[in-house]
Specification:
This protein has eleven helices and seven strands. The radius of gyration is 18 Å and the shape is globular. Helices cover 41% and strands 17% of the residues. Strands 3-2-1-4-5-7-6 form a seven-stranded mixed β-sheet.
Length: 283
């Protein structure tokens, strides 16, 4: 198996950031991505079923996360917490305020690997890393509570995480985050049930064999989180975003010009990046 565990998907994602970086019209530049991906990341992309087919979607996702993050920082965010940070290099590649607190949380092995690759590099903001298994709820709670006490307007990122969780786990995380008023924004990616089923039949088969099956694609769409303290403030589809920059392959160009309905997408293959704002959770 080329993919050994869920952390290897971070190497896969880094491949697409590296490829985008080399384009003359790159939507972002990540000079660290190729080193972080390594040969293993390239092997994963070339071996997984359709492992390279949706490079445009990964690029659009990265671009949208970047845009939402910058917007929130401009509007006063003083801390960013990246849950399941993987091999993300935003604290190094983006121009961020020096006083911004950026906290990465992930498994010890993947963070140690990243630290080794980036040992000679300097982040542009105040970066710290916390080694934690986020599925360990009892260990997670005091960590998030402690971080909440250190900021006034905190942005939480879960890029590429929720799709691996059960709906009950997503609900638990949403409630936990909403329980801290300082966590004011949450940026995440979400998939429709239709796209989830497609992914489960292709790439998802191999990922299931290493204990990382695709699970979360709520029929309600972004409204799924509203009862648990989070209301969608901005939702941007990946295909529409990619089409703006002429990234989708020829076979998807017609689909990209069709109107994109709001809310639940049902069987339509849809994925997007969502900016949520905290509201008082329903009792």
């Amino acid at each position: 198996m080329v993919v050994r565990n869920i952390s290897d998907t971070a190497r896969w994602a880094a491949v697409f950031r590296a490829n985008e970086t080399h384009r003359p019209d790159a939507l972002f530049r990540d000079p660290y991505a190729a080193r972080l991906a390594g040969e293993h990341g390239v092997d994963i992309a070339n071996t997984l079923p359709q492992g390279n087919s949706y490079a445009w979607a990964w690029v659009a996702r990265t671009y949208l996360f970047d845009q939402f993050i910058l917007r929130e920082i401009q509007q006063g965010a003083d801390m960013v917490i990246n849950l399941a940070a993987g091999l993300d290099a935003r604290p190094y590649r983006m121009q961020l305020p020096a006083a911004l607190q950026w906290v990465e949380i992930d498994l010890p092995e993947i963070l140690a690997y990243k630290e080794g690759i980036l040992a000679g590099e300097k982040p542009t903001c105040r970066l710290e890393r916390i080694r934690l298994d986020l599925s360990d709820v009892e260990a997670r709670k005091p960590v998030l509570a402690g971080l909440a006490g250190r900021g006034k307007k905190i942005v939480v990122l879960t890029e590429g995480l929720l799709i691996y969780l059960e709906a009950s786990q997503v609900i638990a995380l949403a409630k936990e985050l909403a329980g801290h008023p300082q966590f004011q924004r949450w940026i995440l990616d979400m998939h429709s049930p239709g796209l989830l089923r497609m992914m489960q039949r292709t790439t998802g088969k191999q990922l299931s064999q290493v204990g990382a099956p695709f699970k979360f694609g709520p029929p309600e769409g972004p409204q799924f989180l509203e009862p648990y303290g989070w209301r969608a403030a901005d939702v941007q589809g990946l295909l529409k975003t990619a089409a703006r920059f002429k990234r989708p392959p020829f076979g998807l160009r017609l689909l990209s010009v069709l109107p994109e309905k709001k809310g639940a997408q049902g069987s339509r293959p849809w994925s997007g990046v969502c900016l949520f704002e905290r509201v008082e959770p329903r009792q």
